[in-house]
Amino acid sequence: MKRFRSLSFSAKLIIVYICSLFFAICANTYNQIHAAANVLEEESSRNLRLLTEQVALNFRENQESMGYSIYSRMAALEIPLLMDAYTQEHSSAALTDVRYALTQMITESSDYDYILLEMSDGTRLTTAGRTVRNQADVQTNCDTILDEHRSVTYGNSNWYRGTDGGVYILRDVYATSPLRRVGKVVIHMKGDIFSVSNVYENTGFLFFDVHGDYLSGAGMAIPEDVRQSIEEDMADGVLAEKKNWTKLDYYTASSSSGNWITVGINSTAAYRDMVNRIARNGVLFGCMGLLAGVAVLTVLMQGLVTKLLELKKAMTRVADGDFSQHINVSGNDDISLLAETMNHMTSKIQELLEQLVEKERLKNEAEIQMLEYKYRSLETQIRPHFIYNALETINSMAKIRGNDDIVEIVQRISRYFRSITVNTTRQFITCQQEFDMLRDYTEIYRFIHGDKLKTTFSAKEAARNALIPTMILQPVVENALQHGIRGQEEDSEIIVHAYVKENRLNITVK
Fold first, then answer.
1. Could you report the average pLDDT of every consecutive run of 10 residues in the chain (510 residues)?
2. Is 389 domain-assigned?
3. What gap in Å lies between CA 170 and CA 268, rounded to an integer?
4. Residue 139 and residue 133: Cα distance in Å, rounded?
5. Which H helix or E strand runs over 344?
6. 357 and 417 in one domain?
7. Quick check: 492 and 453 in contact, CB under 8 A?
8. Any bridge partners for residue 257, and if so which?
């Protein structure tokens, strides 16, 4: 203390200034770091909660869509009707029909690769002839699920996770004429059936049922120890009390939708890096200001004190969030250069903030467009199934009332619409497929306008599997019906013939 008193006033001023500036920089840096960390934590937690709620809704819609797709596929292949026929006849021919229809369930585009079907008398059929990874484990899990869950599901799809980590669906099979349960089916889903946009590559999701049993995951790969910890919290019923895990490497948010609980998990590494950068930048700029102040004060003490005070005030306002602050620069000394740097820094920060706001706006617009696309895609998938189910209902009612003509024309209309739905997604189809679709079309036309029309579709063996553009003959035949035949009193005939000559496909319409 005596030595400090013996120093000159300028030295005392420098020491006091250095200590004061150092303290102010440290305090402001700490406050900014703490405030930034709180803002990041709140924003990240809120965004994770919103995202988890949206993913939970998408997960539930995806489940319902898959269950409905499986039901529609089985109805289209008439598997419930064939199972009902076997229940009544118990014949090997009926069992063969069920086995054949079951093999048609699985295609290259199917979300499942193995099916176990149990009849009402306990007979079990599988699609074991197809190539499935770990088929023995899959078959064992299907048998176990079927044996352990014998209760009636009443048309609902129950989801389970097998010991092999795969996802399985269990549901009852019902015949519609009359309505009765004819068996059960267990289906093994292949690959990752639930996914989220790769925009959220730093976010992962875990899906649990209401009992806390883990089903599947999506998004970022979750470390095994974190997943086990979450499962333990789910079992203990304390996950909802953990609003965040900011002191650990991950934090979570949960959302319930229907009979499922979705847990969103996000890594804190990126936010910790951002806070560390803020700390380093605060220390860096603080040291720069401190060194510059010492250098200027030692040379131009009297004239530069005022500038330092002005600079300190400006820095305080910037630290409080006023980035519009501009320092008037006079002279070419170090403090003036520091003031110019400060002006450049504030303008750059303001520019970066505006860019960040714009980037976030574009990101939100992209998310909305993505959700709208998913909604439109799901809507286009639901509409055809509604038409098919309506036609199937009319067909069933006509069969009950014995209207064979109505049954036949409804079956043709249903088959015709299915052909259009499937074939319009392809650029080319075989000549035989085109003829089959035209045959249904002309029979529908004949049913509407009377029995005067006769149609003949024939193709040589070499021409049947030849590829032609989809629905290329439809306008030709339709034009012939509308302008060449309609209105004639005598019987009319349309003859379509396909043959190959000199390696060329020839199709004649008479």
1. 65 72 76 75 78 82 83 88 86 88 86 88 83 83 89 81 86 84 89 58 77 77 78 72 51 71 76 74 76 68 66 75 69 72 80 84 80 52 60 72 76 78 76 86 78 81 86 82 67 85 88
2. no
3. 38
4. 11
5. helix 334-401
6. no
7. yes
8. 260
Backbone angles phi, psi at 329, to 5 degrees: -100, 130
In this prediction the pTM is 0.45
Number of folded domains in the chain? 3
Please tell me what DSSP assigns to residue 473: S
Structure tokens at 44: 């990240």
Structural domain of 339:
2-27+273-363
- Among 323, 295, 321, 325, residue whose Cα is nearest residue 308: 295
Domain closes at, from 363, 380, 415 = 363
Residue 3: Cβ within 10 Å count: 6
Whole-number Å distance between alpha carbons of 30 and 50: 30
| Residue at 70 is within a domain | no
At 256, list the tokens.
Answer: 């319930």
Name residue, tokens 């089959």.
436
Question: How far is Cα 38 from Cα 341, in angstroms, rounded to an integer?
Answer: 28
For 325, the 3-state DSSP assignment is coil
Tokens at 227, concatenated: 């997943």
Residues 28-54 as b or e (16 or more Cβ within 10 Å = b): bbeebbeebbeebbeebbeebbebbbb
Task: List the structure tokens of 210.
Answer: 């209401």
Count Cβ atoms below 10 Å from residue 507 Cβ, excluding itself: 18
DSSP secondary structure of 442-494 = HHHHHHHH-TTEEEEEEE-HHHHT-EEETTSSHHHHHHIIIIIITT-SS-EEE
